[in-house]
Specification:
This protein has helices spanning 40-48, 70-73, 93-99, 107-120, 122-125, 137-149, 167-182, 194-200, 218-221, 225-231; strands at 2-11, 14-24, 29-33, 55-60, 63-64, 78-81, 155-159, 186-190, 203-208, 211-217. The chain is of the alpha/beta class.
Length: 234
Amino acid sequence: MLRIRDLHTSYGAVQVLRGVSFDVPEGQVVTLLGGNGSGKSTTLKSIMGVAPAHAGQIEFMGKEIRGLKPQAIVPMGIVTVPQGRRLFAPLTVQENLRLGAFCRRDRSEIRKDFENVFSRFPDVRTWLSRKGNQLSVGQQQLVAFGRGLMGRPRLMLLDEPSAGLAPILVAKLGEIIREIARSGTTILLVEQNVHLALSIASYGYVLRDGKIALAEPAEKLRGNEAVTKQYLGG
């Protein structure tokens, strides 16, 4: 589904990605691991066109998308749930959810997707009139997932979804991601919680200094202390 080859991305004179290559097969959960500053979030931003890559290939469903703007990429079926959730604080939960479908004009189908979000996250229906800044971190994360699902994604990019969550909510988060994957959405997961990421993903790539340092099935990466110490700083 997603094919990245020799991707290079810089912020001004600072080069962050130095020839990153990996694949995300359709129907799979793939995780990108690595320490702070390794280039994980920049990879997701490059895919979405937020941090324009200056070299390499980004193919989605066989089509080259490097160089496209986010507003052209989202309607193709790629959405991101950003780090920190980034709800619009002055807007209500209902308005935040509606923004997830900003590229769509199929109103009857959008109404159905609202109901699908409420079916998946029943508590969200009770928060519709609340402002984004009136929710707890855990509640914000559910709304952020709901907003992403309103775009009917074929590929969902998750950037550090467990950040700031209490440990008791992390296990629930893992089940949410698994359920989204089971429903047919392909997922590329960036996550600092290595245990969580490898319990969900089928394959893992480890980024170090803007390059892929290791690529193995998740089951081989799980419990590998040498990998944790060498590549993830654990």
